[in-house]
Each structure stands twice: as C-alpha cells, then as structure tokens.
TrEMBL record, chain A:
Enzyme class: oxidoreductase
Extent of Basic and acidic residues compositional bias: 506-517
Source organism: Pseudonocardia dioxanivorans (strain ATCC 55486 / DSM 44775 / JCM 13855 / CB1190)
Residues in BFD-like [2Fe-2S]-binding domain copies: 414-460
NADH-rubredoxin oxidoreductase C-terminal domain boundaries: 311-365
SUPFAM superfamilies linked: FAD/NAD(P)-binding domain
UniProt keyword ATP-binding, yes or no: no
Protein name in UniProt: Nitrite reductase (NAD(P)H)
Keyword Flavoprotein: yes
Record keywords, A-Z: FAD, Flavoprotein, Heme, Iron, Iron-sulfur, Metal-binding, Oxidoreductase
From TrEMBL, chain B:
Coiled coil feature spans: none
Gene Ontology biological-process entries: respiratory electron transport chain
Entry keyword set: 4Fe-4S, Iron, Iron-sulfur, Metal-binding, Oxidoreductase
Protein name: Nitrate reductase
SMART domains cross-referenced by the UniProt entry: Molybdop_Fe4S4 (SM00926)
Enzyme Commission no: 1.7.99.4
Residue ranges of domain 4Fe-4S Mo/W bis-MGD-type in the record: 3-52
Alphabetical list of InterPro entries matching this protein: Asp_de-COase-like_dom_sf (IPR009010), MoPterin_dinucl-bd_dom (IPR006657), Mopterin_OxRdtase (IPR006656), Mopterin_OxRdtase_4Fe-4S_dom (IPR006963), Prok_molybdopt-oxidoreductase (IPR050123)
C-alpha cells in the first residue's frame, strides 16, 4: 500500500485524509503542528461571535483516526523534507518515509511591520488558540482594536461587538475589503458596520502599539484600547517546501494534478499556488483534496483541478455581503454594468455581465438576489433577461397584487383552484339563477375544496348582486356534475396563462381594467 | 340491488376525504376531519368513471373476451408451467398503494404462500419508500403523520419540504390557514404562492439539493443558539455525529450549492425555534431522489434538533400520497416485509405470520427484489417470466418508461387486474376486470395512520369481480383453497397477522370502525383506543430515543452538461391522479389539462426557440417526450417541469433516471438532465 504523509491537519489536510479514507488503498500519516485535533477554521468567527462552542467545531469524532487506522500526530511539526530519500523529519525527532507527500501547511497570519508587534496584548486572528486568546480579552466593556478591515477582521469585529466589546477597526486602505469590493460598496459596508456598533477608522494606518497605552495611528490619534487583534492578511506557509527546493512563488506552485516541482510532492489549500484558486477560501482546498485523493488512490487517474470560482460571503450577523468574480469591472464596450446604491438602507448591488453571463458582482443587503447571482456565476449560465429582477431579487416591487375588486378580475381568472372555477363560470352560474352564495357554491363547487377562496367567492357574489340582475329567470339546471359548456371552455385555460382576456362576461360598465391603480 | 347512499371516502389520495356516494354513483362531500366537507375536482368527479364507456367488464385472454373460469384457469396453468420449468421466483407480483388493506395483505399472502415467490413489490416503492426508511431509521416506526391532521390547525409555522399540497391534496390546505408556511420547491407552486401571500417564505432550491438546504438549516439552528438542548439530551441520540457533518455546511456554503439565500435559512430556523407549535412535513419533492432517505433524514435531524417530534403541538411527518399509501406499506406487498410492518428476514416475524397462515415458517420465501430491480430482472436468467399486476400502471409510473415497456413486453405472461384499460393493461396477455372503490368494501389507512372504512354504494357491473375475488380465485386454482373470501374475514386475518408488529391492527374491528370510532394504529387490543399521537412518551427504538443519523450531501446522479443542459423535475397537477389512467378519462378534468406540458422559464424557452403553447421535444439520455410548452416565471431558468400523469409518447417517465436510493430503492424521479428542442406541427400530428 502506498504510504502518504500529510503535513498539516487543518481543514484541507484533514479533509484530504478523509477523502483518501473513503476511497481506500493508501496508508496515511498526518502531522499537525497545532495541538488540537483537526477543527473547522471557518467557524472560528462564529466561535468568536458566540454562535458555537470551541469544543463543537472538531472535524472528526474522538477516536476517528484510530478507528480508521490513520496515524495522526497532533502537536508535531514537520521540520524538513528530503525529497531524494523521500522522508520527512518531525519536531519530535521522528523520520517518516513517504511514497507521496502532501503539503497542506496552510498559511500564517501576517503581522505588519509596526513597532510593538508582536508583543503583549497583540493577538493575530488565525487559529483556535488565537481565538481563545481573543475571547479571553473580550469581556463586556473591554476596548479592542482590530487591525485590518478585510473579511476576517470585520467578522471578528462584528462578533466582538455582539459580545459587548467596544471595537474599533483600523484599516489603512481607502475602503473596507478593498480586494473584494469597489469603493462604492466599501462605503455602504462602512455605513452598515458602523450602525452595528463597530467604530471604523478607514484610510488610517497603525504607527505603533504600546501595551497599556494603545494604538497610535498615522492620523496622529491614539486609540486607547486594551488589546489589538491583527487580521491584516495571511502568507502561505511555504518554508518547508522552499527549503527542500520546491518552486515557490506566493505559494507552493502546483499544476492541475496538484503536483509541486519535486517528485511525488503535492500541495493543496492555502499553501499551494494554482492559477485558478482564489486564496484564503476553504472551497478550493476542499476541491483540491478530492482531486488529489482521486489521483493518489487511483480512484480516478484522470482527475484534474481546474480552479474554483471566487465567491466571498461575509459571515457577520446583520450584514449580508456577497462578492463574486471581477468585482472591479467597469462599463465598457464588452461589459454590461448594473449598479444600485441605496446607502440609507445599507444596500448596494453591482453586476457585471459579458456575453449575457455574470462575470462579477457585489451585493450588500440583497440576500436572495445574491444567492441567484452566485449560482449564475458558478454555472456560467445565461443571466435572466429581466435584469432588474436579477439585480434586486425580492426587493423588486412586484406587479400590483391581484385586485381585490371583483369587478376588475378578468373572466378567465381561476377563483377556485381546487375545482378550476373561473370568475366567468361564477358569472354564468349567477345568470343561470344561482344568485346567492350557497347556490353559487353548489352550482360551480367554488370554495368546496380547501376553502381558501371563500372570501373571493363571497366578494364576487356581492358584486354580482350589486351590479347584475339575473339575465335569465329560468330555474337553474343544477344537478350534480352539471357543467355549463361555457365554464368548461374557460376551464380549459390553465390558471394565469395565455387565457382569453376578453371580458365579455363582465358587466359592461366595468371593463377598463387598465384604469386600475 | 338498490342500495342506500354509502358513507365512504374518495378513491384518490391519502387524505381520503369523506364522501357520500349514491346508488347512481353520484358524489357528495361529507364532513370528515381531514376534509371538513371539502372535495377537490378529482373527488367531485370520481363517480363518472363507474359507468365510463371504457370500463373493463369482461376478462380478456390475448385480447379475446373469455369467461372468468377460463381466464383464471389459463393464468393458473401458465403459472404452474412456468414455475415447474423455472422455479417459484419466475412468477412475480406487483401491487399498489391504492389497494385496500385487505387486498394488500392478501396479495402478500398469495405471493408467499400460493405462488411461493419472493418476487413481490409495489408502486409505493416509487412513492413512500424513502420517507418510510428514514422514519424507521429515526423513530423506529414509520407512520406518515404521527399525529392527526387536525393538529395542524393550531400550528404557527409549517415547513413543507417538497410538498405541493394545494394541488395534490387541496382540502389539506384548509388545515394550514393559520400557520406561517415555508414551502421548499424548485417551482413557485400554488402552495408556494399561498405561503408568500400569507407572509411565509418560498425557498427555491436547485433540484437535487434539498439535503444541502436541510444541512444549512441545522447549521443555522446550532450557530444561532436555537437547538433545544434539553430535548436533544433527553430524547435523542446521535446529535454530535449529525452536527459534525452539518458543521461543514454553514449557510453561506449551503447557499452556494442549493441556491437558497443563507438569510432565508436563518429566518426559517428562527421562525421554527420561536414558535411553540411547529411542524416539518416532507413529501415526494424531498423523497424521490437517489438520496431521498438521507434527504428526509436531514429534515428529521433538523426537527429533532429543534425538539419537534413527540412534542404535543409540534412534529415531523411525511405526507403520504396514494389513497392507501400508508396501509399499503404495512401489510406485506413489499419485497422485504410481512404484515404488521414486520421484516421478512426476522425469524420471529416469520414464525408468527406462518402460524397465522397455517404454513411452515421455513416455507416462506425471503426478501425479493425492489420494484425497479424486479422489472430490470425480467428477461435475465433467474428473473421473472410472469408478472401479475394489481392496482398499478407501471408503464406510466415507473422510471425510464421505455425500458420498462421493453421489459414488460419481454414477459412470457403479463396479467393485469384493472377496471380501465390503462397503458399497462392494454399490453397485458390477460386482463381481469375488477370493481371500483364505490363497488366494494374494505379498509384503508389514511395519511395520519387512521383506519377508515370503504363502503359499497352500488354493485359492480355484470362480469366484474373484486380484486379480492381474483386473488382468492387464483389461489384456489393453484390448489390453495383456504384463503378468506370476504373483506371482513380478510381483515380479521390481517389483525391476527399484524398482532405484535409495529403496525398492530389487532384491536381494530370493522364493528368499531362502523360505530364511528377514530382508530389510529397501533391498536393492540380490542378495548384499546388507538394511538392518534405517537412518540409523546418515547420513540419506538428499544432505548426510547429518536436517532439523528449523520448525512451528507451527494449531488444528483445526473448533472446538467453541454448536451443536456437543463434539469427536469417531475410532479403532479391538481386535476390528475398518479398515472392518469382514471383522471384522463374524466372529461371535466381532461378539459383542464388535456396533455402533458413542460413548464419552462421564458428566457430558457426563447433560447431553445420555443414559444408558449408550442410543442417541444424534451430529451434525456433515456428518451424523449412531446410536450406542450408553458412559459412560466414560476420555474427556475435552469429547470423544467413535467407532470407524470400521461402515457405513451407523453410519459414524463421516458426521461427519468432509474438510479436508486441505496436504502429505499427509490428512483430519482426529481432530477434528470434534459434538453429542449422545437417541433414542427406536422411532426406532432405524424
């Protein structure tokens, strides 16, 4: 059996181990520097916000590794790779032989070159221990600064604010989440976040940190805070690979087989650099894990990783933000651009389309439209021709709801769906002598199914009584299962479709439907 | 013989609306808790089939009218010959969820004892099997609604996952008027419209992603702090394992897969958790998938996490479809089952039932093939050579209809008992004309597990026998003369056979039912009041706890690609029932929906060169259907919808994917990859 050594027991390394387990056919050793068993890093901001306990984010049940014969070594770091001997040396002195080596070392928090960092009172926001340390500082009433107004920084700030912490976000760039948002969206987001009780200093850089004093900023101000959370970005963890001679750029360079430049060495997740994989998201890493497991177990030798479309979703209560694709697209000959800014209500929508396909979008405060946009972007399907509905989703005002005025209802409108009774059929029955509610119900069965149309039938009955004396005084032919031919004809038209809109059955004075408000 | 009008129930769906049928076959609605005096158009017009000109009234052997004696004799001879040459399993039986309890039960006994075959299954496999398996797995018992329908009257929130009850079960909507509704459906159905109009929500997932949505909801329930911790601790097991998988589907990730906004997921769980009386109900939309059992399980997991099941005023349930879809899945016409919802591979169950039947337990066959596998085995070595069909029109209702047709045509002997010449009967070697609902006595078990009496209002036409007569007659011709002959006697035998089983009917008698008692099973002894509400004290597993079972998303078996870029999903319309063999013959219903149609988003239609009202060819890898285009905004642009009620070239099941759920053996009716092509008018008429 092939021996696969996985370096890194984070979301991607652990996922890869599980993908291999499901396929079978390999012996697995996983080393992870963190002392915790593999956990769900994406949920750390939820832990920070109090949504879930730190103990509830484990990726695997206790005993999982032993149950499946997988050798997992937590708290053990890989210290060097010998690609010729095909061995990995570990921090506990162990030497692991591999047939395939999978690097899933992830990334580490980047600390900007600010005096005082790292130091007392400073916690990056990257792993579970960081999260626990931040929670330790996050007593209600505590004052904390968050350095970095990107995705992670804002999620952290929102969670801390919900815990009663006085939070200030210090963000040196011109607007929030500048990688995923254009300036307009950044401004709307700032309004939304501000209203949620997070103080923002945008376009302001940090100059120095002094524990017990606070954060000095480049606008000359001093933020008197008790602690500093740093969420200023991450850097791929590539040292091990670089030392072994692998080609490294921003990350470990891999091809569509997730192969690094050394024989039988592979890299997946944040530590890897693949042209099609947006950094900092878990989805590409999970997709890579599945492909690599297919390849290394032989389950699908043709498996290739071709990239993942970038979707950014901010997970912060009270903010619904989505960014996909080319967020900075602007109007040009090839690009169709739709944009709506509704700052007062914290809403912003921008869509870029090329060849009828969504190529980029930013949505703040349009959650259901955002869900559709993500799907269109992911699948590359043609966008709906109703661009306004696409942009606004449910926020688009519907057509005027069907009029409550029975006189204005078209004859073909199905009033009672359970028995396919149109307004026209009711009028016909009335004229055949069914001139009260009970008789109308008996004659047409309107309202005898689920009963939900009772009020409408009653309304039509009242309208007929007020406007239309029976034209035909002959007694009604109301046997069971009797249907006037006219009604059958009406009934043949499915509800709400291309039915005749003539209003021949209507009282003559009430035909100007267009006049309805 | 002139009769008094009979208080009976509608022949169609599992709501079993109360109706009174007069001697001339006239129908009038009747006050009953499920329908409260209401009927839909199908029920109102049901009587017109009693005297329909197409009515079968003479046995047919190879298309030629024959006497009953010669027809039964012919079938018995052929069965004997085939079994002598190819063994007992060469003869198979196919039942239906519309058959009365008595028929379903006797059909099972007939197969196991008179035929000695293991090869019996039924069309409920296409209907309730996923919900049943998930219910058994979670609760230890499967009763569609473990509470009376009227409990829904007081609900504040009801989630309908893949249920379009405004069309399929209209009077049920009368029980939902007070509740805020959440409707999960890829289409904006009339049910979804009602939800939105009354301040509820319509969640419109991509077909085949319902499970992800349910996982996202469970995730949201946990991270929003809405889990009923005390309930989970005291009444369930398995939460941590279920959560571990749901933990990987945070709403934003689930949203990407299923297309439902993460915000909506949080809203729904907050509504459910913020109400005292709330229900989650699934139906075929959640169940008819190759991962239908897991999908239902995901909804059950959510319900358990929020403390719904077994809590007064709240609950989880599945909405049974066919008239006796509940009773029909309890009494032995299922491949792996014996009466009383017993397992055929359980030695104690075999011993009990064998004793009732007066046979040696070792003589009972073991589990047979499930419906699709049974059909697939036709024409293969060891596969069935004869098929006896009761209450089913599988040329229309089974998936991959072209293959089904070829398989049925390959049989040495196809026998169909029916009252109208449906698509399957028309191709049968032997057709046996049987009575309709208003012409016979029996019991059915409705969607809430309540046993109801079906009563005879008029005599069957001359030449027509009841299904029970046919089964007993065939048994006698095969040398098994001891079968009970009256429906009441069959029911009494069923009571004994079910005694001690999960679905215990032993305390239910026709006399009690005729006296007006509302009896829900289990009802284990004569004085027992029945069990309207299950699980209030304990669930049916030995430890009394409900089980959360960890489930994860698996994509639909067939995803859209370049040659077949759209997802087709199938379902129902109000005016037709199941294969349409009945309702298509009711003039008033056929006038509303005369032909199969395909619902297409206007953009999608335009791209395919189609206009509203035109004929289109809908093609999958398995077949093609001619359907009339309906351009509607109620369907997602990536999805088309076809009702499955039509036969021959209009059968939506020509398109469907026969891939099966690993547990329930339910086919994937709800997702198939298709393409749309225009058709010229001449091509249609040709």
């Amino acid at each position: 059996m092939r021996r696969i050594v996985v370096v890194g027991n984070g979301m991607v390394g652990a996922r890869f181990a599980d993908e291999v387990r499901r396929r079978g056919g390999a012996r697995l050793t996983v080393v992870g520097a963190e002392s915790h068993p593999a956990y769900n890093r994406v949920l750390l901001s939820t832990v920070l916000a109090g949504g879930v306990a730190p103990s509830a984010i484990a990726l695997q049940p206790t005993g999982w590794a032993a149950d499946h014969g997988i050798d997992v070594r937590s708290g053990v770091a890989a210290t060097s790779i010998d690609p010729v001997a095909r061995t990995v040396t570990c921090s506990d002195g162990a030497l692991l032989r591999y047939d395939d080596l999978v690097l899933a070392t992830g990334s580490r928090a980047w600390l900007p070159p600010v005096p005082g960092l790292p130091g007392p009172g400073v916690v990056p926001f990257r792993d579970l221990d960081d999260c626990l340390a931040i929670l330790d500082m996050a007593r209600p009433g505590a004052r904390l600064a968050v350095l970095g107004g990107g995705l992670l920084g804002l999620e952290a700030a929102r969670g801390l604010a919900a815990r009663g912490v006085e939070v200030t976000v210090v963000h040196p760039a011109g607007h929030l989440m500048e990688r995923q948002l254009d300036a307009g969206a950044g401004a709307v987001l700032a309004d939304v976040v501000d209203r949620l009780g997070v103080r923002l200093l945008v376009g302001v850089g940090a100059v120095s940190w002094a524990p017990g004093v606070g954060l000095t900023c480049d606008d000359g101000s001093l933020l008197a805070v008790d602690g500093l959370v740093v969420a200023a970005g991450v850097r791929a963890e590539t040292g091990l690979a670089a030392d072994a001679g692998a080609r490294v750029d921003r990350g470990i360079v891999v091809d569509d087989r997730l192969a690094a430049s050394l024989p039988d060495v592979h890299a997946i997740g944040d530590c890897a650099q693949h042209d099609g994989a947006p950094p900092g998201l878990v989805q590409p890493g999970w997709e890579q894990a599945a492909v690599l497991a297919d390849l290394l177990t032989g389950a699908d030798p043709a498996a290739r990783y071709r990239g993942t479309r970038a979707v950014t979703r901010l997970k912060a209560r009270g903010v619904d933000l989505t960014a996909v694709g080319d967020v900075h697209a602007e109007d040009d000959d090839a690009t169709e651009l739709l944009r709506l800014t509704d700052s007062r209500r914290g809403r912003y929508a921008k869509l870029a389309l090329r060849d009828d396909r969504v190529v980029g979008g930013i949505m703040i405060g349009f959650p259901d439209a955002a869900a559709s946009v993500i799907q269109l972007h992911d699948t590359g399907s043609p966008a709906p021709s109703d661009r306004l509905a696409l942009l606004l989703g449910r926020a688009l005002p519907g057509e005027a709801t069907p009029t409550a005025d029975p006189g204005r209802l078209p004859a073909a409108a199905v009033v009672c769906r359970c028995n396919t009774v149109t307004k026209g059929a009711l009028v016909t029955a009335w004229r055949s002598g069914a001139t009260d509610l009970g008789a109308l119900r008996t004659a047409t069965r309107a309202g005898t199914g689920c009963g939900s149309c009772a009020a409408t039938v009653e309304g039509i009955c009242g309208w007929l009584a007020a406007t239309d004396a029976p034209a035909d005084p002959a007694p009604p032919q109301l046997q069971e299962r009797h249907f006037p031919a006219a009604q059958l004809q009406e009934s043949a038209v499915p509800a709400g479709r291309d039915g005749p809109t003539t209003q021949d059955d209507e009282p003559a004075h009430d035909y100007d439907r267009e006049g309805a408000a | 013989m002139a009769r008094m009008p009979a208080d009976t129930h509608c022949p169609y769906c599992a709501l079993q609306c109360g109706m009174t049928v007069g001697g001339a076959g006239t129908v009038a609605p009747r006050e009953f808790p499920t329908n409260r005096g209401g009927l839909c158009q199908k029920g109102w017009t049901a009587g017109s089939l009693l005297s329909h000109p197409d009515r079968l009234t003479t046995p047919l052997v190879d298309g030629v009218p024959a006497s009953w004696d010669s027809a039964i004799g012919h079938v018995a001879d052929r069965i004997r010959d085939l079994q002598a040459a190819y063994g007992p399993d060469s003869v198979a039986v196919f039942g239906g969820g519309g058959l009365t309890n008595e028929k379903a039960y006797l059909l099972g006994r007939f197969a196991r004892v008179a035929l000695g075959t293991s090869q019996i299954d039924y069309n409920g496999r296409f209907c309730m099997s996923s919900a049943a398996a998930a219910g058994n797995r979670a609760f230890g018992i499967d009763r569609g609604l473990p509470f009376p329908v009227t409990d829904l009257d007081d609900a504040e929130v009801v989630v309908l996952a893949g249920a379009n009850v405004a069309e399929t079960m209209p009077p049920l909507m009368g029980h939902l008027t007070g509740a805020r509704l959440v409707v999960v459906d890829p289409r904006r159905t009339p049910t979804a419209e009602r939800a939105v109009a009354a301040g509820g929500l319509h969640l419109q997932p991509v077909p085949g992603t319902d499970l992800v949505l349910a996982l996202g909801l469970l995730h949201a329930a946990v991270t929003e702090g809405l889990v009923d911790r005390a309930f989970v601790e005291q009444r369930t097991s398995g939460f941590d394992d279920a959560w571990r998988l749901a933990a990987q589907w945070w709403p934003e990730r689930a949203e990407r897969a299923c297309g439902v906004a993460a915000t909506d997921m949080r809203t729904v769980v907050s509504w459910l958790a913020g109400s005292a009386r709330r229900y989650v109900l699934t139906a075929r939309g959640a169940e008819q998938h190759a991962h239908g059992v897991d999908t239902v399980t995901a909804w059950i997991n959510l319900s358990l996490a929020l403390g719904l099941p077994g809590t007064p005023g709240s609950g989880f349930g599945t909405i049974t479809g066919q008239g006796n879809g509940q009773g029909g899945r309890e009494h032995g016409q299922k491949a792996d089952q014996l009466p009383g919802y017993r397992r055929i591979d359980d030695p104690a169950a075999r011993a009990h039932v064998a004793a009732v039947w007066g046979v040696d337990a070792d003589s009972l066959p073991g589990p047979g093939r499930s419906a699709v596998e049974l059909i697939d085995a036709i024409g293969t070595p060891g596969g069935p050579r004869a098929l006896l069909v009761f209450g089913s029109n599988l040329r229309v209702s089974a998936p991959d209809a072209a293959r089904v047709a070829a398989k049925l045509d390959a049989l040495d002997l196809l026998v169909v008992a029916d009252f109208l010449p449906g698509e399957t009967a028309r191709r049968a070697d032997v057709v046996l004309p049987v009575a309709q609902w208003a012409e016979e006595e029996g019991t059915l078990t409705n969607l809430e597990g309540r046993v109801l009496r079906r009563r005879r209002a008029l005599d069957p036409p001359p030449g027509v026998r009841t299904d029970l007569d046919v089964i007993t007659g065939l048994a006698a011709a095969l040398g098994f003369g001891g079968f009970p002959t009256t429906p009441r006697a069959v029911f009494d035998e069923l009571r004994a056979a079910s005694a001690g089983g999960p679905a215990d009917y032993s305390g239910i008698t026709w006399d009690r039912l005729d006296a007006g008692e509302a009896l829900h099973w289990p009802c284990p002894e004569p004085g027992h009041p029945g069990t309207p509400r299950l699980f209030l004290d304990r669930f049916a597993h030995p430890d009394g706890r409900a089980r959360l079972v960890p489930v994860d998303h698996v994509p639909a078996a067939e995803l859209p690609d370049d040659p077949y870029p759209l997802r087709a999903t199938t379902g129902r319309v109000l005016v037709h029932y199941q294969s349409g063999a009945q309702t298509r013959r009711v003039e008033e219903l056929a006038a509303v929906v005369p032909d199969v149609f395909v619902e297409v988003h206007p953009d999608t239609a335009a791209r395919a060169g189609l206009v509203d009202g035109a004929w289109a060819r809908v093609e999958s890898r398995r077949g093609r259907v001619l359907a009339r285009v309906r351009c509607v905004l109620s369907v997602r642009p990536d999805t088309v919808f076809l009702p499955f009620h039509f036969g021959d070239g209009q059968a939506a099941n020509l398109l469907t994917n026969p891939v099966l759920d690993p547990v329930s053996r339910m086919p994937e009716f709800k997702v198939a990859a298709v393409r749309l092509l225009p058709v010229s008018g001449e091509a249609v008429s040709a």
